[in-house]
Amino acid sequence: MSIVLVVFPGAPKPTSEAMRAEQRLDEAIEMRILELVSHSEDNDFGQVLQRLLSSDIEGLPPAGLASKRALIEKIYKRLCPEQAGTVFLKKPQNSTLCRIRMMLAKRRMEKAEKENDPLTFRMPATKSQEIF
């Protein structure tokens, strides 16, 4: 995959205040990761990321911590080199978010069936849906 950037001379440039805010945010994330890693014996990346997501970090962009994923991985690998292999998260079909989405979809389907909504698309149950 390739990407081509077209940059115009009159395009807005990052301000020094925006760059300082970005640097402060990166430092805050690093300090929070250091705090989480130093206070826990379970330094699995998924656990650290989960606790980081529940933290209140000021100055995050609209995309939240997802936009800082590369930075978080880099800091984690530097602080916990022995756990670097845990950076790769579980397959999407096994993730908590996926299970929650499946549970909500099943609830919506059950609600539609109770209301006898003929316009609702009904999927046959799969093994992953039978877990719920």
UniProtKB/TrEMBL annotation:
Keyword set, alphabetical order: Hydrolase, Magnesium, Manganese, Metal-binding
Ranges where the Protein serine/threonine phosphatase 2C C-terminal domain occurs: 2-77
Gene3D superfamilies documented for this protein: Phosphatase 2C, C-terminal domain suprefamily
Coiled-coil residue windows: none
GO MF, one example: magnesium ion binding
Source domain of life: Eukaryota
Segments of this protein annotated with the region Disordered: 111-132
Pfam family, one: PP2C_C
Cofactor: Mn(2+)
Protein family: Belongs to the PP2C family.
Name of the protein: Protein serine/threonine phosphatase 2C C-terminal domain-containing protein
Species whose genome carries this gene: Callosobruchus maculatus
Taxon lineage: Eukaryota, Metazoa, Ecdysozoa, Arthropoda, Hexapoda
